């Protein structure tokens, strides 16, 4: 899970996305998480992140895809890899988590057992992201495979299509996370465009990029504090514009942080397991009589970030757990590699 061979600035953004995601789920939506009421600074923070949090995660996915995008006639291998990486953890982590939430005591979200068992089809938790991104990978991968994205003009046309779909009303039934896919698609394509134009962006926006993001963040905080109803609608032209501009501003800043880079190396495990550890922190601190919001938020964020890292280190030691719970490739034994080196060529 080390990120030492990866782009430090992209891993830094991954770490930032992890921090924003965990912070939001610790605070929770209105009535969820720590059940923090309106007027609290933590409620304002949670609401203000809505235009940046998941768009940034998806923007990074599109950026990375654009580097290692499908080439030639290897769509079957591409499909198999995405099933292993996204769908296997959906069944092995997402569905059991939803079932645990349905039968476990003291949870904030009321989830029926049947809904939990069918959560691979109609998502009920944050695992909707896995389904949504899988659809996006298949859609964009097919276009790439058929040679339909070989020019910048076609990529911009794809972004225009994604923006149009983003602004349309969602489907009545969120089958396999299709509404999440239409929500995230423009940010994924924006990430692809960002990778293609990264040098230009950093040349012209490196100085002002961080200031743009700071100004956007301050504006979102102000709006969330004044009237949260103006900011919680993600599927809007404002949400699309703010999300894309924020992602491009962060990318152009070429920001690097050692501890965010380290977190970024474990971003997938943090995404999968952070809610479990955040809920554990809330339960334990509550049992200890801790009721201060600041302590509960800090404890939830720390455990929500570090717990999945430790779990990832444990799961990665064994092929069985690393494949099922992290979607990683099964490691090839070194002895076998020495016996048959020609077979790997």
From TrEMBL:
Key word Repeat present: no
Name of the protein in question: Acyltransferase
GO biological process, one term: enterobacterial common antigen biosynthetic process
Molecular function (Gene Ontology), one example: O-acetyltransferase activity
Residue span, Acyltransferase domain: 9-312
Cellular compartments per GO CC: plasma membrane
Domain of life: Bacteria
């Amino acid at each position: 899970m080390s990120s030492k061979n990866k782009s430090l600035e992209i891993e830094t953004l991954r770490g930032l996305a992890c921090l924003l995601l965990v912070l939001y789920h610790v605070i929770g939506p209105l009535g969820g998480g720590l059940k923090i009421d309106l007027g609290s600074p933590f409620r304002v923070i949670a609401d203000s992140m809505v235009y940046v949090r998941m768009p940034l995660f998806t923007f990074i996915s599109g950026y990375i895809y654009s580097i290692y995008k499908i080439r030639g006639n290897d769509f079957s291998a591409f499909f198999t890899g995405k099933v292993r990486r996204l769908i296997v953890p959906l069944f092995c982590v997402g569905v059991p988590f939803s079932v645990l939430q349905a039968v476990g005591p003291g949870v904030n979200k009321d989830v029926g057992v049947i809904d939990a068992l069918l959560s691979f089809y109609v998502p009920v938790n944050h695992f909707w992201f896995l389904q949504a991104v899988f659809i996006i990978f298949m859609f964009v991968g097919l276009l790439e495979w058929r040679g339909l994205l070989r020019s910048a003009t076609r990529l911009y046309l794809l972004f225009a299509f994604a923006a149009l779909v983003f602004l349309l009303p969602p489907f009545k039934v969120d089958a396999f996370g299709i509404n999440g896919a239409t929500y995230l698609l423009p940010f994924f394509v924006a990430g692809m465009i960002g990778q293609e134009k990264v040098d230009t962006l950093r040349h012209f926006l490196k100085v002002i990029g961080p200031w743009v993001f700071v100004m956007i963040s301050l504006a979102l905080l102000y709006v969330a504090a004044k009237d949260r109803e103006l900011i919680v609608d993600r599927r809007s032209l404002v949400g699309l514009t703010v999300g894309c501009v924020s992602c491009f501003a962060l990318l152009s800043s070429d920001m690097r942080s050692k501890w965010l880079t380290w977190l970024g190396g474990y971003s997938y495990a943090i995404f999968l397991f952070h809610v479990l550890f955040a809920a554990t922190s809330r339960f334990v601190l509550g049992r200890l009589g801790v009721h201060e919001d600041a302590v509960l938020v800090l404890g939830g964020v720390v455990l929500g970030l570090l717990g999945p890292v430790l779990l990832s280190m444990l799961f990665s030691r064994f092929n069985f757990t690393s494949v099922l719970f992290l979607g990683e490739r099964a490691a090839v034994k070194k002895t076998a590699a020495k016996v048959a080196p020609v077979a790997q060529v």
